[in-house]
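Here is my example:
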Amino acid sequence: MPTKRNMVIRRGMKRSHGAADPLLTRARALPLTMLGLGMLAFSGLAWPASGLALELFGGSGASSISPSQEMRQGTTQFQQGAFAQAAAHWMNAARGYEESGQAKELCQALINLAHALQQEGQIRRAQGTLQAALKLSEQNGERGLTATILAQLGNTFHLLGKDEPATEHLTKALTLAREENKPVLVAGVLNDLGNALTARRQFAEAIDVYAESRSLAIEAKQSALAATAQINGAMALLQNQQLSEAHRHLDQAWSDVRSLGDSQAKTAGLLNIGLGYEELFAATTAKSGVARKSDAGKGRATEAVASAGPGAGLLRQSSEAFTAAGEVAGRTGDARGQSYAWGYLGGLLEREHRNPEALEYSRKATFAAQKVNAPESLYRWQWQTARLLRAEGKEEEALAAYQRAVTLLKPIHYEYSVGYQGRHHSYYESVGPLFVEYEDVLLRRAAAAKTPDQNEQLLVQVKDTVEVSHAAELQDYFQDDCVTTVASHRGAGTLAPGTAVVYPISFPDRLELLLETANGLKQVRVPVTGEKLTKEIRSFRRLIQDSQSQNYMSSAQTLHGWLVAPLQQDLQGAGIHTLVMVAEGSLRTIPMGALHDGRHFLVDSLAVAVTPSLALTDLSAAQRRKGSLLSVGLTESVEGLSAPRYAETEVQAIRTLYGGKLLMNKQFSAPSLEEEIKDQGVGIVHVASHTVVGTEARDSFVLAHDGKITMDRLSQLVGLQQYRQQPLDLLTLSSCEIAAEDDRAALGLSGVAVKTGARTALASLWTSDDETTTELVSEFYRQLQDPALSKAVALQRAQQKILSQRGHTHPSFWAAFLLINNWM
């Protein structure tokens, strides 16, 4: 299922602080892959020993049993849903086969291992394992085997939400499978290709591909694969709003799956059918206008459940499918399958407000998940348990369950392959609502704490939870390990006197401000709804760019009253001169320095910086190195995009101060940028070229003379500095822009420093053709020459200089630039 980028759980200031919609708190109907149906057999190949398994997994790992026995034990564990244990056996088998030079068997062990890692949520590790297997198969000319590995690689890309490379790998696999005349493999790859096409919203093509997969599977007497394609086809029809056809396909799949023998594949099919009926219910009731209603007393969002009619029938079918799945899982010893069956049944009962029964099923699901050490499902049942306990007024027990759920998420590393048989789900669809609910519980308890110590402990938990949630959100945006890398290289440091950090946390019924200074943490509650706050932010962001209008002032003052004024006394009492905002959602789209108290802009009294997460900010002081500037830019149009009007003036003014190398126009290319960064001890990279940060990281780029440098590529180039003694201190994107109401793009902008490995980024929220941009940037660099000044104060003084000029008081002239991450 494609991720719902426009669905706002919390970011965008709309947070659900009671029980989330059950359909958002678990995976939706999930696409089954061909490899979910069991291990495939492969033909032999010759292979020279190379220490591959040792390189992949480390250690000698000597096993007391033979590799073939390890393979059989791994298969047994896998069929019982014990994926971690299966992975351990297959890892041992891979080592054994490598030592004896059995290439075919080694490849099979690696493929099995990758599948187990994939089921565990370790998608990138699975990719690395498959790449090793692919190299072996290609070296030995095993085209059929290569097709299988390419297909599984495509599935891993799909699970990570990267559906273009997924489609590419699966298309290659399909071509090879057809050429090798392997109809079963062709049918399986077609099914997986359908999953990737569905994720890309190419529903008509996906429906046709699933139909071909099912037809081939029936011809080859592969009943489980045929049923899989039928289920996935039904979900594609559902997403294409063909509800009647989807219902018919699900009914057929229900009949097909029930006729299968007991197996893990049957359990998976029944679970997905149950989820399919549940989603069909949601689509049907939405289409028929069944309204959502709010339980105002607890802030819970629930869906009206029809007591009769087709809606109730769909939920009944869903319940029957989950019950049948649990029974099959019980007979086959599949504890993980049982966990999902009971957990989903608990979710249905929660929907119907049958809380005691729902709680019983949730606890049974938890116990089953614990048996096979399955954190990717266990956190869900702990979360479900927490919601149910909270609904029953058992706050202490609910808090403990929330804590367990959040703790369980950490070893999963936020690779959002959530749900049975896994698929990529965005932060907003998977774990986002959990963080929202947990923070709400903590803040309410902190406000009611009886002692200062209790209050402080709870507020520390709130801060830590916000930090973790922001890191997860950022990792979901970039879809790589940049967050983990930055966290592991984070410099030591503490919050200096004179600096305050503010975490604005918005809920549907209120705004909470968490203030951190050298003196500790403080909570301030502001009575403004999330919807009202978002509306004011949108208005401010829209009006602030119109230099001909003063209409922005009302919003500037209103937002100051909500976001700054409640903290004013604390800020003054602590002698604060620098304010760091750890913003979320729509708050990331506006410049805080342009807020107004009725007499002055915020920038008049405070230096302002932003960061997506304090835990991802290097708090250590940097040694600024004069003469370490690399300036790049365009004065010529490239790919139909015009160059910044004052690019040349800008870079020349900065070079007057810092010297350094200049790459302009034809000299500015990806290879030349790489060469300069590699060969010099560059401390600052200044980019005076068109830069776009989009809703998705893949849509973000810096324009060079030879074309677009994607954010991934830019991070590779700038990241060359990460492993030197002196990392890149500052990356400036002086002609950057994001859409005014694109919260996802604003998230990406806030993470530019994290992605590229720079300690600090200076970037604009919008572009301006006015020459004051050049003057502001030049003044920032001039101020930065004073080692006694922080970067935040340098930007503040540059903005104040423009603000003081006649005719330039409007924020459109000076407010666009954000100082991101390290502000010192």
Summary: The longest strand covers residues 499-507. The CA atoms of residues 97 and 105 lie 6 Å apart. The first helix runs from residue 52 to 57.
